[in-house]
Specification:
473 residues, binds nicotinamide-adenine-dinucleotide, globular, 7-stranded mixed beta sheet
Length: 473
């Protein structure tokens, strides 16, 4: 299939600012200017809302099958533009084309679109006993605000947009100010086959996001980002009682039991922690390893980590990239320095070139670290993993649960029953066994504690972007 987005250059030309207020976007690996993006204000937001309001009734009036067919057509055009989308994503976000990175992310966008189109959500007959008859239907909410972060800027946008559209809503999306091109490019491609106004993107910073959250136009806010911003959104949306799905920060623990084969799990441990160079909500951010296998696990992980090439994203050999922005580089740098000055042992990395142009922070493993060190207790969101030695598993569970967030966790063991028992004691929205962080479009995903509330994906995800209606009688 041929589209207007056949090449990186044509994709960029379709979305770059052409007059009006704008700002520069730079490649985080090289500092190179990529393009200028528009800066939208509240007037632009009002226009997007108006277009969404006009388009939504017609979109909702289509049958569920027609909207699902439209999502499949969207998946087709995303696949046709996959290579230019991946290149743009790599240049703006920094993630390499290869490994579980840019091409993988664009592929996941298409997969999620198709899975969302295929997920059944039948009308539920809740009572039918001869005396009473009641059905539970799901109706569109109206307008959905989709506010996203900079780490997986295309995939997370699709996670919010696809179910919202399937359920008959119109969407106004706002990408992170750090990755506006990725948001604009994705929605430009999607809009090549969607009716006008059903999906719009506005670009701006937190102030524009805040304006969306106070607007009475939106019946639902899908938000993925930090816990601090999530709390602000709860407050700013309160007057309108806007429905919220909040996918917030995490500090996922992995617990390794003494019965593992360290060499066999090292690669999966590595990607569990370092996918997207650690800039992943449900990445493993603290690793608790039993003393009996501690040295072997640290050594096996170090061997895998040392062999993973980091560099400019569009160089085909790399699988790790720069931090997307300097702010995040500084967070990782501060936390690793705190660990080093506490006497923790640097197994790998920990020595960034702070004067270099790109935001590269080397792959870092920190062993023999105090469980109360800031690198353990705060979300580093980058390529630096603290590895804590434990003696008994109750202690490891207590430490894993000892933070106020609970997105994901993992247990690593040869004994599945034992691992499942430990999983049941962990305070996390998902617990993986012998892997960490994998998501699937049919498996519900969401956090507990201050990692937020609401579920995405599968039938639960569709329910969250609709309102229930009971027909009684
Ligand atoms: P962030 O909260 O700084 O920004 C996220 C988005 O919110 C951006 O688009 C930003 O412009 C917007 N925003 C900022 N202030 C706002 C306000 N007052 N009202 C409305 N919108 C506002 O987060 P980030 O730094 O972009 O992302 C990193 C964080 O996201 C990490 O904590 C990470 O764990 C979390 N995250 C969570 C998930 C998940 O599924 N739970 C997924 C990815 C990232």
């Amino acid at each position: 299939m041929s589209t207007a987005f056949d090449t990186y250059q044509s994709l960029l030309a379709a979305i770059a600012a052409d007059g009006g207020p704008s700002r520069e976007v730079h490649d985080p690996a090289t500092g190179e200017l990529i393009a200028r993006v528009p800066i939208h204000d509240e007037t632009d937001l009002a226009h997007a809302i108006e277009r969404a309001r006009s388009a939504q009734p017609g979109w909702a009036a289509l049958s569920d099958e027609e909207r699902s067919a439209a999502l499949n057509r969207v998946a087709d055009v995303v696949e046709a533009a996959a290579e230019p989308l991946a290149e743009l994503l790599s240049r703006e976000q920094g993630k390499p084309l290869n490994g579980p990175n840019a091409r993988f992310e664009v592929g996941a966008c298409a997969a999620w679109l198709r899975a969302t189109a295929a997920t059944p959500l039948p009308v539920e007959v809740v009572v039918d006993d001869g005396d009473a008859y009641a059905e539970l239907h799901r109706r569109p909410i109206g307008l959905v605000a989709a506010i996203t972060p900079w780490n997986w800027p295309m995939m997370i946008a699709v996670w919010q947009i696809a179910p919202s559209l399937r359920m008959g809503n119109a969407v106004v999306a706002k990408p992170s100010e750090y990755t506006p091109l990725s948001g604009l490019a994705l929605t430009a491609v999607m809009n090549s086959v969607l009716p006008d106004g059903v999906l719009s993107t506005v670009v701006g910073d937190g102030a524009l996001g805040a304006a969306m959250t106070t607007s009475p136009a939106f019946g639902k806010i899908m938000f993925t980002g930090s816990t601090a911003t999530g709390k602000r959104i709860v407050q700013s949306s309160a007057d309108n009682l806007t429905r919220l799905t909040l996918e917030l920060g995490g500090n996922d623990a992995g617990i390794v039991l003494p019965d593992v084969d360290p060499a066999a799990i090292a690669q999966d441990l590595f990607w569990g922690a370092f996918i997207n160079t650690g800039q992943t909500c449900a990445a493993m951010k603290r690793l608790y390893v039993h003393e009996d296998v501690y040295d072997e696990v640290v050594a096996a992980l170090a061997e895998v980590a040392a062999a993973m090439p980091m560099g400019v994203g569009v160089d085909e050999q790399n699988v790790l990239g720069p931090l997307q922005n300097r702010m995040q580089f500084d967070v990782v740098d501060r936390l690793v320095e705190a660990a080093k000055s506490s006497g923790a042992r640097v197994v790998l990395g920990g020595d960034p070139d702070r004067g270099a142009v790109g935001n590269f922070y080397p792959t870092t493993l920190i062993a023999d670290i105090d469980p109360a060190n800031p690198l353990v207790l705060e979300e580093q969101f980058g390529p630096a993993l603290p590895i804590i030695r434990y003696h008994d598993v109750d202690e490891a569970i207590a430490l894993a649960n000892g933070v106020d967030v609970g997105l994901g966790a993992s247990v690593w063991s040869a004994d599945r029953a034992k691992a499942r028992d430990i999983a049941s004691r962990l305070q996390a929205g998902t617990v993986w066994i012998n892997s960490h962080g994998g998501v699937h479009p049919m498996i519900p995903f969401g956090g507990v504690k201050q990692s937020g509330y609401g579920l995405e994906f599968g039938a639960e995800g569709l329910k969250s972007v609709s309102v229930p209606q009971v027909i009684n009688g």
